[in-house]
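Preliminary data (for renewal application), zinc ion complex.
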Amino acid sequence: MYRYCLQCGKSHKACICRWIKSLPSNVELIILQHSGEKNRPMGTAKILTLSLENSVCFIGEDFSQHTELNSLLDDSHYTHYIMYPCDQSYCVSSLSVNGDEQSGLGLNPSSKKIRVILLDGTWKKAYKMWQVSKNLHELPMLHLPKGLKGNYRIRKAPSDNSLSTVEAGYHVLSILQPEQDFTPLLTAFDNMIQFYINQMPEGVFERNYQKSLSE
Ligand SMILES: [Zn+2]
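Predicted structure:
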């Protein structure tokens, strides 16, 4: 008997597979996970890869020579973008069909299929990954609309714009494919958080985390 679920990699008790709903998506996600992130208990990127058949997750820091990633990037049937908020990034909604064409800036000519790269790690680790992975530097950069609030109830000191990777993925997919319902991703996330809160000794959640919810 394995101690861990072979699907999600979590212990059988904490297995998240029961909350996963398989979702079709035309837009594909590539998650680049910092090698320091993969053993964190939450690991929300897992919800994306389990729910979305055409999403992949690669682990590392410098992806410049990553064969699988580079062969995906070489596929000319796709336009690739990277979520990397900065001065030069465009809002995801400018790519959507209903988006403002002026701000679209021809980022997705000839309506190719879309792949979006998400960097999974703290801001500092994501910065490092982007810096050393030279093959990502040519890609158009994207950011999410301002003011989206995360629901990371058990992260200490949450700030308004700290979205988990699964939430970022949810927003990207929902903006680009508004006709589709991706809320099962958030439901799975919420169930996972609730599970971890339930595991905490009585009072721990209230003492350490509850306050931040009402702020
Ligand atoms: Zn599982």
